[in-house]
Amino acid sequence: MNLEAFQISGKNALVTGSHRGLGAAIAVALAKAGANVGCHGRDPNPGAACDEIRAAGRKTFYFSADLTDSKLCSALIDETISKFGSIDILVNNAGTIRRAPAAEYPAEFWNELIAVNLTAVFHLSQLAARHMLERGGGGKIVNIASVLSFQGGILVPAYAAAKGGVAQLTKALANEWAAKAINVNAIAPGYMATDNTTALRSDPGRSRQILERIPAARWGEPDDIAGAAIFLCSSASDYVHGHVLAVDGGWLAR
Asked: Structure pTM?
């Protein structure tokens, strides 16, 4: 196979939730593979990803927005098209997590997580796809799911519900857009060393239980996601539609 299939030179991408963590690693990896990459986060100050993208010789911008507001989802897509001229790649990475027993789970936690982790994924995908369909030529949409797209988890009912929804939404959108050369796929990270897992990694008992189940015997790092993202955003994956790719150190195989 021609390794140039993994290059995305000249493509214009948007990675949500790329201020730090998994999103930042994905954004920088896409830039090093040749894409211009727009970054997004809730924090008003840009993170290091934009600097690394510029250092790679690619264009970038940073857009601060709370994606619970659908109008800001629209503004984010518009900003990407305005800055770059098009959107060829969308990575829906932005997400949050709130832990509490299901019997006591606050309604505000549920509403926030469904809005950010699922509803915003649909709005952004819909808006990006409209542009791709009108322009022609297809595009790539990659959603960040989770191993909890397959499992229920503990103390995270809203997160599990949203990520289960992301997996099904990925398949539903792929069914409609595959024939239009728009690939919609997802990555399901396992237990990664990011802000979302700080509480778990700080709990000696829970951390030990998790590590004992991971065949790779370590927490994942943001860079472990980069290769999967490049594959799903490049022409190497042109015949991959509606797939949820687990990057979990073997967790689901255990």
From this structure: 0.96
